[in-house]
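dumping this here before i forget
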Amino acid sequence: MKVFAIAVVTIISVGAYLLSVSPTQAQTSSFTAKKTESPFYCNRTTLSAEERQHQKELSAALHSALLGVQELPDGYEFEFAPGRANYQALAEFTSMEQACCPFFDISIRLEREHGKLWWRLTGRDGVKPFIHAEFTSWFGGSSI
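structure:
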């Protein structure tokens, strides 16, 4: 009986919420979310001076662990030496990159059986040259 009462209250609550959001509001918020896109520039002010320094250190460590780069239609995929330290560095670096460059699509991929470690950096039209410019040192050029 208690489970039934909880289920009824939950259904009523969800129904009330859905009725409170008009179709116009839902369409407007959906349209606004799609329309707003960040410009292609890294907003380093989203990170403190200490975080920016740590990001540089992580970048240097990751650069030394970089095994290769694969070009994709909308960005690049970077291969790193597998291991816990590199994965942790990538996870930390990814959160910082996402903070200052929200226009990136970023993913970390580990292959099964202790296989390769990949960092995929992609985005909308135009982001690929930005990635190449921002990560020049990872492509064999001068530092970031």
